[in-house]
Amino acid sequence: MRSHYCGEVTEKNISQKVELCGWVHRRRDHGGVIFINLRDCEGEVQIVFNPDDAKSFKIAETVRNEYVLKITGLVRRRPEGTQNDKMKTGQIEVAASSIDILNISEAIPLSINEYVPVSEDIRLKYRYLDLRRPENAAKLRLRAKTAKTLREYLDEHGFIEVETPILTRSTPEGARDYLVPSRVKQGHFYALPQSPQLFKQLLMMSGMDRYYQIVRCFRDEDSRADRQPEFTQLDIETSFLNEEGIQNLMEDMMRHVFKKVLNVTLPAKFPRMTYHEAMLRYGSDRPDLRIPLELVDVGDLVKDVDFKVFAGPANDLHGRVAALCLSGGAKLSRKQVDDYGKFASIYGAKGLATIKVNDLDAGMDGVQSSILKFLSESVLQKILKRTKAKTGDIVFFCADKKSVVNESMGALRAKLGHDHNLIEGDWAPLWIIDFPMFESDEGRWHSVHHPFTAPQTMDVGILENDPGNCHARAYDMIINGNEVGGGSIRIHILELQMAVFRLLNIDEQKAREKFGFLLEAMKYGCPPHGGIAFGLDRLVMLMAGCSSIREVIAFPKTASAICPLTEAPATVSEDQLKELGLEVMKKD
């Protein structure tokens, strides 16, 4: 039906007859000559209709944007001065000899040939139109190339791709499962997998040695700005490799992908940082190292001040008082400072205290702050020295529980970095290691990663007697402040796995009920193994320079897990419910 793609017609085709198919991207009538930019998946080309060809010209007069056309014509060089260096086809044009309208289009609800802001709901409702925009189509092409390159690397390094079940058993992994009722066994349910975690461990027990899969996963989570109920991850598992071996291999894979897809050279060695150091310096276990700002502890300096907001957390084992100095920040207006305080409150902070340094050499008279009356000059000078504040700077303070301070100040650090153009460099990958094995919530232990992560100790007694000080053999890959991958060495000793379950308040009966098939398999020569999973959506989002994963998913859902395109989720008929033995309970 066509001889060439629109975007591939170039000077080498001059004097050739071509047949092209595509959409009308733009139509212009210039003094009796009609120009149409025809667009397909490879780009645009300019078509010229001359009134001398009355039949074609008359048809061209009727076409509108997004009509689907077939054009036959002769490729020629554009007249001098009319070339368009911004277009791949900008040196040539096609003189049309015939035109067929393959389909018409009504006026579309969003603009394709030029950027006009439109709500995300409209974009998602008409996603098939939104994807006609060349910049959006390019993101999906980038995604496809990234996935292809990942597969090529893993195939070349001895990994085999194995598909694992989508209909499986419900197992607790932190988020709620999506349940699928069984028609043939009423009252029973499948669950859609949150990850292939258990199956990939079983593959290691099967002797597969190196497995991977680009797999769809599902989590029924509460509404969050940049999460999807269904997402895609690159899932990887290996046998007989330790943490360093897996990290080195994955680093090499990431360098290969960035080089081949973006022609970007990542560092020859990704830095390693412990979880403790990351939280202390950046308030986050996924710090963006391109931002030079760091948190500074000042709790020891304010333990004895007559200001309970500071002194309370400073004297609490679970509290923290942290400061963050912004160079040149003294020029911020009162409203700007207040807005940063409101931003921190999103993450639980009750407020931010600040000190503006107008003249460092003037002592108390050279600073401006509502908390000065609570600080002696000696304490003030120690704070300014520790934070390395200079004339013209502002110091932000947050005092609360460690978790609140870390989350709010970590987020503030990132926001200040972006708001004030402090980003240094393009790409900053690193590994976060030595995570706590468990965290405590209301007297109960929870896994920081998942219950199959191996502790750094193999001694069950140490694990059970002091779980709060045990570290996990876990590792996360961070790029530019985003966790793109997380993994761990897995537990391969049955006794150790049962000890972890007990700490998580999963007794033997419950463990057998939920994970019996895995525990049974561990009896028969389970090898040491470990792996990692990369969020493909988030990785491609970063590579494409987007701010949301929805931009790189073909048909994403909204933050509230709704699909405006298909209007899912939707009700089903009474007959379907009866067949499944289900009844919908109406909420009051």
Descriptive account of the structure:
The chain folds into three domains: about 5-105, Nucleic acid-binding proteins (OB fold (Dihydrolipoamide Acetyltransferase, E2P), Beta Barrel); about 135-270 and about 430-435 and about 470-490 and about 525-550, BirA Bifunctional Protein, domain 2 (2-Layer Sandwich), CATH 3.30.930; about 290-425, Gyrase A, domain 2 (2-Layer Sandwich), CATH 3.30.1360. About 30% of the residues lie in helices and about 25% in strands. It has helices at about 55-60, 120-125, 125-130, 135-155, 195-205, 245-260, 275-280, 310-315, 335-345, 375-385, 400-420, 460-465, 495-505, 510-520, 535-545, 575-580, and strands at about 15-30, 35-40, 45-50, 70-75, 90-105, 160, 180, 190, 210-220, 230-240, 270-275, 295, 320-325, 355, 365-370, 395-400, 430-435, 440, 445, 475-480, 480-490, 530-535. The strands form five sheets. The chain has an eight-stranded mixed sheet, sandwiched between helices. A five-stranded mixed beta barrel has the order 1-2-3-5-4. The chain has a five-stranded antiparallel sheet with strand order 12-13-16-14-15. α9 (about 335-345) crosses α11 (about 400-420). The chain is globular and about 90 Å long. It starts with 16 loop residues before the first strand and ends in an 8-residue tail after the last helix. The model has no long low-confidence stretch (mean pLDDT about 95).
